[in-house]
Amino acid sequence: MSNCRELCPGCGACFPIEVGPVHPYMTSSPACWRIYGALLAAEYGDAALMYTHRLSVDTYAVQHPGDRSRRAIQSVGLHLSRLMLQQEKEGPPEETNAVMLRFGAHKASLDWLEPPQSFSITVADMEPFIGGPQHADAVRDWAAKTWADWHAHHDYIREWVKAATTSPD
Ligand SMILES: [Zn+2]
Q: pLDDT, tens digit, for every residue of 84-100?
């Protein structure tokens, strides 16, 4: 990108320098957060993108693992878990939401997971597709590649999900 000026501390993509809001613990550059906001706005405005929306939220969260605070650790673990379910055990959306509630009850047992060195696709690559006919396909690809980028922790997440879904509350 020719107007590349600063690397996002989360996803590593390069953006122009901007001044603007960012999320309190999913550390990102302001330009990255703005593009994510535009992506979400396109999804809120289209009921057909409801399923896509959940993938976007999970994918962005695990590309911005944040400050190693307890809430950041839990956010990454929960979103990775839901991302795993959507990649490996695709069920009806309601089922995924019910599972997420159950995960929430077990989030205190999640550990810090060292994020990948880099990500294959970032929200910067999503920008040209926002609100267009390829929006859903682009997000699915972004989600699948991001889950693959986290391969070092796949077994940890699968085991954690198994424990969380089989142990008593
Ligand atoms: Zn970013």
A: 998 998 667 667 777 88
Domain span at 66: 6-166
| C-alpha of residue 24 to centroid of ligand 1, in Å | 14
Count of domains for the chain: 1
pLDDT of residue 94: 66
Is 161 inside any structural domain? yes
For the whole prediction, is pTM greater than 0.90? yes
Average confidence score pLDDT of the chain: 92
* Cα 15 to middle of ligand 1, angstroms: 9
Residue 1 lies in a domain: no
Half-sphere exposure of 42 (CA within 13 A, CB side): 20
Within the chain, strands assigned E span: 6-7, 14-15
